[in-house]
Amino acid sequence: MSKHYAAMAFTEGVRAVQHQYGSDAFYDRKRVQGIAAPGPDALTDDEKEYLSERDSFYLASVGETGWPYVQFRGGPAGFLRVVDDNTIGWADYRGNLQYISTGNVAGNDHVALIAVDYLHRRRLKIFGHVRVVTAESDPALIESFSDPGYDAVVERVLLVAVQSYDWNCPQHITVRFSAADLEPHLATLREEAEVLRRQNIELREQLARLTMPENGQST
């Protein structure tokens, strides 16, 4: 848990529930420390490496009605980039044209992200302020976030000024495997299957020759 995470997350309502279940004394120390500490919290090498390896994350924003909106964002591994110690960003590709997240952050720049590594059962939560950059305002930045190998149209880039973050425990994270995770193992199995296939063909040919009579006709 970074220095300011508790001060941002543990509101009076949250603290009341913590008191009910007996965790308030432990967490209140972290909250008070966060209030007194200067901010925002810089990302360490652990967070930077973790984020650079992700191929997806979940983004939460809040609309004018007060309802939160959670959106899945995905792309090639590394599409979520660490710009500097306090900034992360990603290319926002053309989707279903609803623009709910984009509209929400136009009125309220507070966002939360959660990036999950299902294979190793890890998850990182981030609080931050988002800024939307378009091709009209900064075409060079848009170009720098484009991926020639990924067939999708970049409509904008979202930059998040990280304020705080927290690593969750692995409890209750279901292990899942992506195609990329399985590929090294599947490649080995495919090679073994091909060897067995060729051996089977050779054995069939040998058996056919053994059962062939001298006149060339099988018995």
UniProtKB/TrEMBL annotation:
Protein name: Pyridoxamine 5-phosphate oxidase
InterPro entries, A to Z: Pyridox_Oxase_N, Split_barrel_FMN-bd
Coiled-coil blocks: none
PANTHER family membership: FAD-BINDING, PUTATIVE (AFU_ORTHOLOGUE AFUA_6G07600)-RELATED (PTHR42815)
Chain ranges of the Pyridoxamine 5'-phosphate oxidase N-terminal domain: 44-137
